[in-house]
Design brief:
One of its GO terms (cellular component) is cytoplasm. By secondary structure, the protein is an alpha/beta fold. The chain contains 18 helices and 12 strands.
């Protein structure tokens, strides 16, 4: 018998070479079973046949060459029992990245090599649409805390995958009691770095716990919009969402970028007085009819041909021509319902191919051919209630269900028609109007409104293309 060396160190136990790879990740990955395991009894029978204690009992055979999905779904719910009944309501969320309106227009000096010494973040501001005014000095409370670091600055100036994932997580957390959702999405402008993404989910939250109106203004969605610098428009999915037959527009600061009465006031040097009244009226601080009469009174003596002179300085809003052309190609009836004045409303209708034009009529002195400072009494004032009445009467005249109508405006006198229409959009509206309107958009081009109908960028291009 050989003598044992008392100084020899015992060898450390090691795994067999056949079970050890050169990668920690490979050693700890989950691999697809070569034979499906139906029950624990199958495993025990295999173990007894091959001998207890053998290292070859692992039913999962490693394959260091290729890592594959195990096919195991980790969930508290039955993954295969998530089919929804036919006819389950759906909601469509259209997410727009606000590329023209960054939350922080200047990067923090610590994260921007181009920032000079002493450069600071902008002062805290009130987000548009979150309060009746965006002037911090006019808010009777403590100034708001600085905005959080926008996540689009980190993950990209578009609707990123993480942005979409975060939105889906928020949706899952909203329904009460809890219910699993089916969701799908598609990019409406481009697949790489999309600016507009449409998300369809069902079922919607239980209305007994969260109404659709409250869902549209839910705090979690508002926070999501602020963090990712996006706007979310929620609509109930239906054939009428996608197929509108009547679309009505406000004129001033909607289809055109001007306030016509303010432009007229420039001719006689009362622009400041008229502009202040206009701003208060559009924010809902003054009765529209009373404020209109007050402003019109200041125009007494203005030459009646002032509207012809104004046509050269009127600026049609970006995308308005393309929007109207696409809607006409789809067979929609269009109308402009304006709190402005009839001569320019009719001119604009001719420019954009609009079918109806309704606005206020100014009284003209036939002897001097100047404005009298009064409205023609035989025509009703086109105020909030009249706009809603016109929307319904035009729809009835053309046998169009109200669900197949859409309204677009920016002022407080547009709110009634925005709520009455099947789709009401506050376009680049006053802050108070954005708070009260069913939906709001603040994009660069009015073409964005077409995306709310489910139209892609390619669809829009085809609709506005000139037919040879």
């Amino acid at each position: 018998m050989e003598a044992t060396n008392p100084t020899a160190r015992p060898q450390r136990p090691t795994l067999q070479d056949s079970l050890r790879s050169n990668s920690f990740l490979h050693d700890h990955q989950q691999y697809k079973p070569s034979v499906p395991i139906s029950s624990i009894g199958n495993v025990l029978e295999t173990s007894l046949e091959s001998g207890v204690g053998s290292l070859s009992l692992n039913p999962i055979s490693p394959d260091p060459e290729k890592v594959t999905d195990s096919g195991i779904t980790h969930s508290l719910f039955n993954h295969h029992a998530n089919t929804l009944p036919t006819g389950t309501p759906q909601v469509v969320a259209t997410i727009f990245y606000k590329s023209s309106d960054p939350i922080h227009p200047h990067l923090h000096p610590d994260s921007s090599p181009n920032a000079g010494a002493g450069v600071r973040l902008p002062s805290p501001t009130v987000p548009v649409g979150s309060a009746p005014t965006v002037d911090i000095e006019k808010i009777p409370r403590e100034p708001p805390a600085p905005e959080p670091e926008p996540l689009d600055h980190i993950y990209g100036p578009f609707v990123s995958q993480l942005c979409l994932t975060n939105f889906l997580q928020i949706l899952e957390s909203l329904p009460t009691p809890y219910q699993r959702m089916n969701t799908s999405h598609r990019c409406l402008d481009q697949h790489e770095h999309p600016r507009v993404v449409e998300v369809t989910f069902s079922p919607p939250p239980n209305p007994d716990y969260l109404t659709f109106a409250d869902l549209r203004k839910h705090e979690s969605i508002w926070r999501f919009e602020r963090e990712w610098n996006v706007e979310v428009v929620l609509q109930r999915e239906s054939v009428f969402r996608r197929h509108k037959r009547l679309v009505v527009f406000d004129m001033d600061s909607t289809l055109i970028q001007n306030e016509v009465i303010d432009e007229i006031a420039k001719f006689i040097g009362v622009e400041k007085e008229v502009s202040e009244i206009t701003e208060r009226a559009m924010n809902g601080e003054l009765d529209f009819s009373a404020s209109l009469r007050e402003r019109v009174g200041l125009l007494k003596g203005v030459p009646a041909d002032v509207f012809e002179k104004l046509k050269s300085i009127i600026t049609i809003s970006p995308g308005a021509r393309e929007l109207c052309k696409a809607l006409k190609a789809l067979g929609c009836k269009l109308a402009v319902l304006s709190g402005g004045f009839q001569p320019l409303a009719e001119w604009l209708a001719g420019e954009l191919g609009i079918d109806y034009a309704f606005a206020n009529h100014l009284e003209v002195d036939s002897a001097s051919q100047t404005l009298t400072g009064k409205l023609v009494p035989t025509y009703p004032i086109v105020d909030a209630s009249q706009k809603r009445k016109l929307l319904k009467s035009i729809a009835a005249e053309n046998n169009i269900p109200i669900a197949q109508t859409a309204a677009v405006g920016d002022g407080a006198n547009d709110l009634l028609m925005l709520h009455a229409a099947g789709l009401g959009v506050a376009w680049r509206a006053k802050s108070m109007v954005q708070l009260e309107a069913p939906t709001r958009l603040n994009g660069e081009s009015m073409v964005d409104i077409l995306h709310l109908l489910g139209l892609s960028k390619e669809d829009v291009r085809e609709l506005i293309a000139d037919v040879a």
